[in-house]
Amino acid sequence: MTSSVPASSLDPAVAARLKRSADGLVPAIAQQYDTGEVLMLGWMDDEALHRTLTTGRCTYFSRSRQEYWVKGDTSGHVQHVRSVALDCDADTVLVKVDQVGAACHTGARTCFDNDVLLDK
Amino acid sequence: MTSSVPASSLDPAVAARLKRSADGLVPAIAQQYDTGEVLMLGWMDDEALHRTLTTGRCTYFSRSRQEYWVKGDTSGHVQHVRSVALDCDADTVLVKVDQVGAACHTGARTCFDNDVLLDK
Predict the structure, then answer these.
(1) How many Cβ pairs closer than 8 A exist between chain A and B?
(2) Subunit details for this protein (chains A, B) (predicted)?
């Protein structure tokens, strides 16, 4: 995959160990830093991860629109970044954030509130 | 994608709204149900989701080995399923579990403990 990764400003040491899907992206989980709520899952390429690490605002890459989006730029529902970690395989990002308002475009606090398949 | 989805025992109403990646999978976030810790991210196809919903044990599909794996079958570090939800786009699964022991194959409690890129 390495040869097909677009140039980005991401720290080369991080870029070297990042394991991307065939589309060059990794899933990024956004979690509310204090309550632990899992808010949403987005996708990042190297540049989106770089921007998330350096701007203080969570930035994703839209698979459908093929463009970057800064969470909250349209809705005001900003995600202020508190911490960023890779998993043990370096193929998933966990971003702890302070979410302003609703994380979900439906107005729900999280994207997982409204389609519960099982609850014991 | 619908025509290429392998037959599974998943509830057809759920299968009809599930939005899979090109490889037929959806990311599945495992979260400790009481502490809120994000433990790991795995992948599920329809059958893995069905088994997770019906067996009480978290079941994933390994992208590298192209086979199902029941978390804890080898390690003993079982994930007992407490709830399962889809997100608003039906392309991500959140499974709240009771994790026995370490979630990570490294022995760490979660897969996100050891590669912190930013911590404010």
Answers:
(1) 107
(2) Homodimer.
Which runs of E-coded beta strand occur in chain A?
A: 26-32, 38-44, 59-62, 67-70, 79-86, 93-99, 115-119
Q: Using an 8 Å CB-CB cutoff, list chain A residues near B14.
A: 117
pLDDT average, residue stretch A29-33: 98
Interface check A59 vs B, CB under 8 A: no
What confidence score (pLDDT) does residue B84 get? 98
DSSP A72: T
ipTM: 0.95
Which residue of B lies nearest to A98 if distances are taken between CA atoms?
B120
3-state helix/strand/coil string of B43-73: EECHHHHHHHHHHCECEEEECCCCEEEECCC
Nearest to B115 among A27, A82, A85 (CB): A85
**Shortest distance, CA B96 to any CA of chain A (angstroms):** 9
* Phi, psi angles (nearest 5°) of residue A21: -70, 175
* pLDDT digit string, tens, across residues B6-64: 789 999 999 999 999 999 999 999 999 999 999 999 999 999 999 999 999 999 999 99
Report the predicted TM-score, pTM, of the whole model to 2 decimal places: 0.96
Of B41, B85, B87, the CB nearest to A40: B87
CA-based nearest residue to A107, from A70, A77, A68, A65: A77
Report whether B57 contacts B78 (CB < 8 A): yes
